[in-house]
Amino acid sequence: MIYWSYAEPREGGNATSVARGRLSQDGGRVEDVQVIFRALPTYDGDKHFGSSLAFAPDGKLFVTLGERSDRPMRPQAQDLGSHMGKTIRINANGSVPQDNPFVGRDGARPEIWSLGHRNVQGIAVQPGTGAIWTIEHGTRGGDEVNLDRAGMNYGWPDAAYGVEYAGGAINGGATRKDGSEQPVYYWDPVIAPGGAVFYEGAMFPGWDGNLLVAALKEKHIARLVIENDRVVGEERLLTDLGERVRDVAIGPDGAVWAITDEDDGKLVRLAVAR
Q1: What confidence tens digit (pLDDT) does each residue in 209-238 have?
Q2: Contact 250/256 with Cβ under 8 angstroms?
Q3: Catalytic one among 48, 83, 117, 220?
Q4: Per-residue pLDDT, 274
Q5: Which domains does the chain have, with CATH numbers?
Q6: Are 46 and 70 in contact (CB under 8 A)?
């Protein structure tokens, strides 16, 4: 089964949806496609669909969703009646796990796992702990790495690191708000993060447990060393490639694969020289 998210046109606008289908035996097509989740509300916009997918060890599917960027939509990141600006958690068939944190709360979307996100484009499940880590775009400053826990509020737009693109403070310049979580790590200036993955493999044993984050604006892979849920070191990889890195993955042999977001993009393999 292949799972993917996409920007779905709808009556009155669009929103992120998630579908799944079965790869045919010859690998030539995807069959029996069904949409298993549609983010609500529908909105007529072209920004911040967000959306990365990750399966937890228990088979639950996590999906990240942007808040659609425009000022009228920003407050929906704090609204439990909206999927916008949320991380959601669903079963593999799209149904709602009954142990989700807001199941049964009046006016809340039961799929919601956490709230207060801006535009999450990276998600990774930590080996060993099963913890969910998400990576989101800030404005001019304030790209965040978050340890994404059930029921927690990550602040946007009430608290943020960074300023408006046109200049000026966001919400009076508040970087903290009572009842919201601080990021584990943030970049200022921004790197414009894409996908993320935890490293597990034999090729680079010294990287085990490190979080690899694709960087679009700064055109590299950020290797983050994590100890006790804190980032204690950062190395920038593939800086000589000179291309926007959209996503990163680990091969069975431990090699690092990256894909670039360019008019003539590349699939790149990072391996030990032989």
Answers
A1: 999 999 999 999 999 999 999 999 999 999
A2: yes
A3: 48
A4: 80
A5: 2-188 (2.120.10.30), 191-274 (2.40.10)
A6: no
